[in-house]
Design goal:
Chains A, B: One of its GO terms (biological process) is response to stress. The structure is a homodimer. By secondary structure, chain A is mainly alpha-helical. Helix content of chain A is about 65%, strand content about 10%. Chain A has a single domain, classed as Orthogonal Bundle (Arc Repressor Mutant, subunit A), CATH 1.10.10. Chain A is built from six helices and three strands. Chain A has a three-stranded antiparallel beta sheet. The longest helix of chain A has 29 residues. The N terminus of chain A is likely disordered. Chain A binds a DNA duplex through helix 4.
Chain lengths: ~170, ~170
DNA sequence: CGAGGCTGGTTCAATTTCGAACAATCCTAG
DNA sequence: CTAGGATTGTTCGAAATTGAACCAGCCTCG
């Protein structure tokens, strides 16, 4: 490693280790779930996520944009996936009453059924890999961490684009 | 929500909330970093990661497979990105002495320079968004969490593919 | 009103990722 | 020594994601 001042140019070694481990773990988690979901239930993790959010929404429906926000992905990706799910018959588009440009995406009975088939599989996976229901301490700690991360991101999104370097 | 037994079919509500928040936060984090890196330094987050791992490796070089493992991505994706980086002149392929099928990927001076340009930007981002150097409690807690997650994943990978449902 | 700006969704080309198939090399047991 | 199995890296086609461009409907302020 070139120059060795850890003050500002580099992360403190332990923090750096935590960061890279974080990246690895999150990727492995996603991978694992995605694979399981595709092999056992024929849907992607993102598709599964869409079904979940729809099931949570009132009327088992949701706007495209809200969906995109809650999945944290580009709007175009949502259109793509909703088209796919629609072709599979798991989801239906409806016109939105109060806003003529909006479209409601609604879970079909088949969609709900598919979700209920898949859910136990990945929920048990979440329990085994991520967070066992029983361990409340970790849950609380993690919740706090997620809170600060979320706040940090909100703040960054609120502020205009930084351009401090280069 | 359809049937209401939280015992085994569904996650406990708070755990569920933590899980979805975790997914959202990780995606937002990746997005944020990726965007910043592309706008300010013309490289993807994965490309940046590759440069980082190479810089860490001895001789500033690494095998393709190890690279794929440490980035947690498909081997083919690594070949693709290494080709890109090679075209950019940030990286070079060399034959591996001890293993004729292996290839070493080595950081070029230009690659190191590019990395050193980009690093401060995203490291400060990591500090601001993810983990400030100063907060040791959180760091320790997070480290513990990452450890258990990592172990869980190892165990799951070690065991043959489960097929508990359907 | 009604012109400008904002928001919701889709389309499109480009990029990236993935997994399966493959060839080449290594390694180990017999 | 060698045959069979594992590992390494690439290629290939298919799928997914992205951002920008775009249209349409909303909204507000003059």
């Amino acid at each position: 490693m070139g120059a060795g001042d850890f003050e500002s140019r580099w992360l403190r070694p332990d923090v750096n280790a935590v960061w890279t481990r974080f990246l690895q773990v999150t990727h492995r988690l996603e991978h694992h779930i995605d694979r399981r979901l595709q092999v056992n239930h024929g849907i992607t993790h993102t598709q599964y996520e869409i079904l979940v959010r729809l099931a949570d929404g009132e009327e088992q429906a949701m706007r495209m944009s809200d969906l995109a926000d809650s999945i944290v992905t580009a709007k175009s990706a949502v259109t793509y996936q909703v088209n796919k799910l629609s072709e599979m018959g798991l989801v239906e588009r409806h016109k939105c009453d109060r806003d003529n440009r909006g479209t409601w995406v609604k879970l079909t009975p088949a969609g709900l059924e598919r979700l209920e088939q898949a859910a136990p599989c990945i929920l048990s996976l979440v329990r085994e890999l991520f967070l066992d229901d029983l361990n409340c301490d970790q849950s609380a700690e993690l919740d706090k961490l997620l809170g600060t991360w979320s706040d940090n991101l909100d703040e960054h999104d609120r502020n205009p684009v930084h351009r401090p370097d280069h």
